[in-house]
């Protein structure tokens, strides 16, 4: 990958596309730190006008080539660096290092306090400066340098932000008095309606059970031959079964009558129940009445 990137960058430089070649050489250098790649990148920087970056890269090539015993390459790089040196611009940054937590950045890179007051080689063009510190208003500044130009910029004292008043310790939160509203006295009418209707449904179910029992006993008496439908005569067992059928039928009629009356009463009470509060002491009673031959409901109350 490093060799491929290097070859692509070389082709681009031959075509005059130096702006595209420099990033590829940087990527190649990240994958393989070769002296030849550094020399080619320094040349690319020089061609795009980044004279400070080119000058610094040539000096690195001199050091590495000398260490590697490559005198020829070191000589070429030294000559290139000396030729560029007069064109390099310098920026001197002054800032007060006494402010706790002060951070100053140049083109996004943080500067150590030791760099304050020292000329820094920079590429020509716009230089962005920022300063920040805790509890202080940040500052930003810009300056533009041309080749061989020297400038000094002063980072002003940062303005302290107004201190926020500390919130007092939270005390106990007073509770609002709890007002207990008197629960409205519910009328017994709708409750009574539900109870009456429920009892009525049970009565209807009981009536249905005895009705089925009456039919079953009657069919058993005739289907088993204990009773003769044509002569309407029965033996002892048939007589017993028909009697049981008649008794069940009476019970069914009574239960259905009472159940129906209770359901009707419940429906009437539900829709006719008053909505206002019940009068204290009001009482209502529903008493079911069931006898052998009749059934019904007795409703009584006091107001």
Word description of this protein:
This protein is α+β, with helices and mostly antiparallel strands and 303 residues long. The chain has 3 domains: 2-85, Alpha Horseshoe (Serine Threonine Protein Phosphatase 5, Tetratricopeptide repeat); 90-154, Immunoglobulin-like (Sandwich); 188-302. 48% of the residues lie in helices and 18% in strands. The strands form 4 sheets. A 4-stranded antiparallel sheet has the order 3-2-5-6, with no helix packed on it. A 3-stranded mixed sheet has the order 4-1-7, with no helix packed on it. Strands 8-9 form a two-stranded antiparallel sheet. The radius of gyration is 54 Å and the shape is elongated.
Draw up the topology in text:
Blueprint: H1 2-14, H2 18-31, H3 35-47, H4 51-68, H5 71-84, E1 90-94, E2 103-106, E3 109-111, E4 120-121, E5 125-132, E6 139-145, E7 150-154, H6 188-223, E8 227-228, E9 233-234, H7 236-272, E10 283-290, E11 295-302
Parallel strand pairs: 1-7
Antiparallel strand pairs: 1-4, 2-3, 2-5, 5-6, 8-9, 10-11
Helix pairs in contact: 1-2, 2-3, 3-4, 4-5, 6-7
What is the CA-atom radius of gyration, in angstroms? Answer: 54 Å
Strand content: 15-25%
Number of strands: 11
Roughly what percent helix? 40-55%
Count of runs of 4 or more consecutive helical residues: 7
Task: Please write the string of helix (H) and strand (E) elements.
Answer: HHHHHEEEEEEEHEEHEE
Roughly what is the average pLDDT, rounded to an integer?
84
Give the overall shape, derived from the CA principal axes: elongated
Poorly predicted runs are none
Major sheet: 4 strands, antiparallel
- Biggest sheet strand line-up: 3-2-5-6
- The figure for the number of domains is 3
Structural class: alpha+beta
Distance between the termini: 103 Å
């Amino acid at each position: 990958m490093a060799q491929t990137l290097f070859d692509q960058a070389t082709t681009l430089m031959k075509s005059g596309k130096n702006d595209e070649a420099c990033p590829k050489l940087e990527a190649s250098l990240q994958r393989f730190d070769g002296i030849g790649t550094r020399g080619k990148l320094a040349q690319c920087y020089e061609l795009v006008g980044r004279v400070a970056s080119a000058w610094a890269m040539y000096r690195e090539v001199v050091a590495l080539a000398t260490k590697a015993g490559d005198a020829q390459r070191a000589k070429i790089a030294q000559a290139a660096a000396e030729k560029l040196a007069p064109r390099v611009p310098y920026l001197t940054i002054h800032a007060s290092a006494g402010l706790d937590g002060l951070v100053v950045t140049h083109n996004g890179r943080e500067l150590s306090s030791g760099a304050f007051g020292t000329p820094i080689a920079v590429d020509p063009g716009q230089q962005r400066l920022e300063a920040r510190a805790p509890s202080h208003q940040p500052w930003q500044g810009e300056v533009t340098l041309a080749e061989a130009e020297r400038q000094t910029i002063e980072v002003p004292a940062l303005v302290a932000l107004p201190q926020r008043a500390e919130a007092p310790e939270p005390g106990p939160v007073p509770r609002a008095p709890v007002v207990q509203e008197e629960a409205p006295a519910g009328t017994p009418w709708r409750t009574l309606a539900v109870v009456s209707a429920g009892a009525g449904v049970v009565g209807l179910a009981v009536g249905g059970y005895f009705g089925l029992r009456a039919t079953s006993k009657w069919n058993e008496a005739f289907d088993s031959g204990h009773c003769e439908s044509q002569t309407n005569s029965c033996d002892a067992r048939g007589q017993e079964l028909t009697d049981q059928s008649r008794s069940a039928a009476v019970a069914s009629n009574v239960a259905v009558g009472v159940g129906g009356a209770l359901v009707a009463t419940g429906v009437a009470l539900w829709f006719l129940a008053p909505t206002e509060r019940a009068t204290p002491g009001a009482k209502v009673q529903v008493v079911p009445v069931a006898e052998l031959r009749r059934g019904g409901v007795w409703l009584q109350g006091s107001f």
